[in-house]
Amino acid sequence: MSVVQPTPRPLPESVAATRALLESERYLAGDDLATALFLALKQARPLFLEGDAGVGKTELAKVVARALGRRLIRLQCYEGLDLASAVYEWDYARQMIAIRIAEGGADAREEGIASDVFSPRYLVKRPLLHALEPDPAGPPVLLIDELDRADEPFEAFLLEILSDWQVTIPEIGTVHAAHPPIVIITSNRTREVHDALRRRCFFCWIELPSRERELQILRLRAPDAPEALSSQVAGFVARLRKKDLFKLPGIAESIDWVMALAALDQVVLTPGAVEQTLGVLLKYKDDLDKVGPEIERLTAEVLAETR
Asked: Do 256 and 146 share a structural domain?
């Protein structure tokens, strides 16, 4: 079965065109984000996004890849992330087999074996190395997701890539990208990312949306949900975000919640429906316990607003 390749599209030529490009993939961006993305694309600079979890940082990279018809390469960061997982490693098992075969041959010179087993055919490429390779559809979108979860030494290694768009492999040499990838880096700010890396990027902080903007997002991302229900969900979530919760609900949770309510054939918000589905919106027991006693009051306030 043949695979249909995405059709490459040119980079947007203005902030308005950037916003329209995102909206074509049902992503609403504010002026600050659309401007930062346009400049990052225009000047081939990484875009560094910070904000609470669930505000659309990771989704932006996916949307940009789809909208431009580019390949998305994702590096999910975590504590202990190292060179072998992020850039490359050698296929040691195949190398050992090749060495054993070479040792049994007539010409088993050490330098010949070494040059062979450390050739590109034994190299296992990881996301960062893949991102530097040429692609017929154009430079890929490289998503370095949740960089704040990685250790600080990993940031230092990224500097070579973000500055010179190259990776040095001691046994082979330097791999340089003919055209730099589109790089989007995200952070939930569980720790501070070093200034040296920030200086190499354009920066945008993504806020949780206002009630009006959230309703616009719900209309785009959950078009089959009843209008009244979407409006009430936006109002309910806006009230929760004013509370002292361990984890405020993000846009992703709002979309999941309205779709869950619609799947239960809810036309409007009711205390019973909220109680049954609150775990879609809130992910911690302490938050559920805090909001639980207020469900009836909050629901009544939201319904009164939308009458």
From this structure: no
Q: Mark residue 181 as left, alpha or beta (left: phi above 0; alpha: psi -120 to 50; beta: remaining).
A: beta
229 and 141 fall within a common domain = no
Indicate whether 296 belongs to any domain: yes
Q: What residue type is assigned to position 108 of the chain?
A: A
Tell me what pLDDT residue 305 has.
86
Q: How far apart are CA 109 and CA 139, in angstroms?
A: 41
Last residue of a domain, one of 205, 230, 263: 205
- For the domain that residue 172 is a member of, what is the CATH number? 3.40.50.300
User: What one-letter code names the amino acid at 66?
Assistant: R
What confidence tens digit (pLDDT) does each residue in 189-229 have?
989 999 999 999 999 999 999 999 999 999 999 999 999 99
Predicted pLDDT at 303: 93
Residues in the chain where the model's pLDDT stays below 50: 1-4, 106
Give the closest residue to 140 by CA, choosing from 169, 168, 165, 175: 165
At 2 the pLDDT is 39
Regarding whether 177 and 80 lie in a shared domain, the answer is yes
Q: Tokens 């405020």 map to which residue?
A: 248
The single-letter code of the amino acid at 83 is: L
What's the pLDDT score for residue 9?
84
Task: Please tell me the distance from the alpha carbon of residue 125 to that of residue 30, in angstroms, as a whole number.
Answer: 36
Q: What is the pLDDT of residue 193?
A: 92
φ, ψ for residue 297, nearest 5 deg: -65, -45
In a domain? residue 1: no
pLDDT, residue 227, reads: 95
**How many CA atoms are closer than 13 Å to the CA of 105, on its beta-carbon side?**
12
Provide the domain limits for residue 132: 15-86+126-205
Q: Give Cα separations from 66 to 5, 92, 146, 263 (angstroms).
A: 11, 36, 21, 27
Domain total of the chain? 3
